[in-house]
Amino acid sequence: MSLFERAQKVLPGGVNSPVRAFRGVGGSPVFVRSADGAYLEGEDGTQYLDYIGSYGPLIFGHRPPEIVAAIEGALERGTTFGVPTASEVELAELVCSAFPAMDMVRMVNSGTEATMSALRLARAATGRQRFIKLAGCYHGHADAFLVAAGSGAATIGVPSSPGVPSAVTDDTLIAPYNDLGTISDLFELYPGEIAAIIVEPVAGNMGLVPPVTGYLAGLREITRRHGSLLIFDEVMTGFRVAWGGAQVKYRIEPDLTTLGKIIGGGLPVGAYGGRRDLMQQVAPAGPVYQAGTLSGNPLAMAAGTAALRLLQQKPQLYDRLEAAGAALEAGMLEAAKRHGVPLRIQRDGSMFGFFFIDRPVECLEDVDASDHELFSEVFHKLLADGIHMPPSPYETLFLSAVHGKKEIERTVEAFDRALAS
Length: 421
Ligand SMILES: *Cc1c(COP(=O)(O)O)cnc(C)c1O
Known about the structure:
This protein is α/β, with parallel strands linked by helices and about 425 residues long. It has two domains: about 5-65 and about 315-420, Aspartate Aminotransferase, domain 1, CATH 3.90.1150.10; about 65-315, Type I PLP-dependent aspartate aminotransferase-like (Major domain) (Aspartate Aminotransferase, domain 2, 3-Layer(aba) Sandwich), CATH 3.40.640. The protein is about 35% helix and about 15% strand. The chain is built from 14 helices and 17 strands. The protein has helices at about 5-10, 65-75, 85-100, 110-125, 165-170, 180-190, 215-225, 245-250, 275-280, 300-315, 315-340, 365-370, 370-385, 405-420; strands spanning about 30-35, 40, 45-50, 105-110, 130-135, 145-150, 155, 160, 170-175, 195-200, 230-235, 255-260, 270-275, 345-350, 350-355, 385-390, 395-400. The strands form four sheets. It has an eight-stranded mixed sheet, with helices on both faces. Strands 1-2-3-16 form a four-stranded mixed sheet. A three-stranded antiparallel sheet has the order 14-15-17, with helices on one face. It is globular and about 60 Å long. The mean pLDDT is about 95. Pyridoxal-5'-phosphate binds near residues 111, 200, 204, 233 and 270.
C-alpha cells in the first residue's frame, strides 16, 4: 500500500492541510523525507527543486545552519516552560524594530490565530462588529474569514464552508480586491458599523496579485476617515517583500499587523501587533482575552530570532532575491512567447505568481478566468522534470536565498520543455 493510500485511511484526504493533497492539479502528492537548501527529497529518493518553500517561511531555504543551530541550542535548555523567557522578548524586540507601526506584539502559534485575535481586538477597540474582507485574500481558517461573496459587488459574506454559522459571517463584508469604489459603497451602507478592513497588502493567496497604484493609500484614507482600523495581514509578506514587510515597502502604516511564516524560522509562530494604545487592550494589560499554552514557545522563538537576525545582517539579500525573481520571470516569459502561450507573471521580489491568461490579474475573478487546465498540465510536466511548484494556481511560488543561477536556469529550461510538448 502506498504512503498516500495509508494516509487517506487515517488523515482526511491524506493530508493535514488541504492544498497538499493535489486536488487543484490532480494526481497524488509527493511524500518528502528530507530537504536541504533549495531541494526536497522524496520518499523514493527523487530530488525536487522546491518552489513551495513550505508556503512562505523558508526564505533561507531548507535547514539553514544558523537556524538549525539556534533550535539545537534552545532544545538543550528545554522545549516549553509556560513561564516567560528572554527569547520571547528578543523576538518581539526584533519584530517591533523592523515594523515602525508596531509598538507592541503578541506571539501566537499560527497565522490563523494572529488574524482571529487581531480582528477581536479591532472589534473591541472600535466597539463595532462588521469588518471588510477582500475576495481572494486568505486570513487563515477562523470562522469569520471563511466567507465567499454573495451576489453583487458589495455584499455580506456567505459561509464558504459547512459548519461556519451565518450568524458569524453576517458581519463579514466582502469587496473585490483592488476596487476602492466598493469599499466606499460599504462604508456608506454601514455608517459607523465597520470595525476594520483586513487586507493582504500584496495578495499571495490567489497566485500573486499586487495592489494597484493608490489602493493601499485609499484603504488607509477611508478607514481613518470613518474611524475604522486598517489591518495588514502580513503573515506571508512580512519579512518576505522587505525588512518591515509590505507596509514599509509601500509606506502605509496600518493600525494592526499580523505576522507568521518567516518570523517562525520554519517552526509554528504567528504574531499580531500594532499601536501601543490598541495592544494595551490585550489581556492581561487590558480586557481583550487571548491566550496560548505554547505561545512564545522557546524553540520557535529561537528559530524566529535566528531567521530575523540573519535577515538583519544581510539586507542585500532582498536585492538578490529580486534579481533571482526577475531572471526567472524573464526566462519564463521568453519561453511562453516562443511557444505562443499567453502567460502573465506577477511578482514581488521572491513571491511569484504565474497565470495562463493574456491580461493583468487584479482580483479573484481574473485568477478564476485563467487557464487552470494548462496550469495543471504544466505543473505535472515540471514535477516529472524534478521541479516542485505549488500544486494550485491560487498559491504563490517562493524563491529562497539558495535559489541560485543554476536553479533558475534549470527551471526556465524545464518550463520551456513543458510548454513545447
Ligand atoms: C498563511 C497565511 C495565513 C494563515 O497562517 P497559518 O499559519 O496557516 O494559520 C493567514 N494570512 C495569510 C496572508 C497567509 O498567507
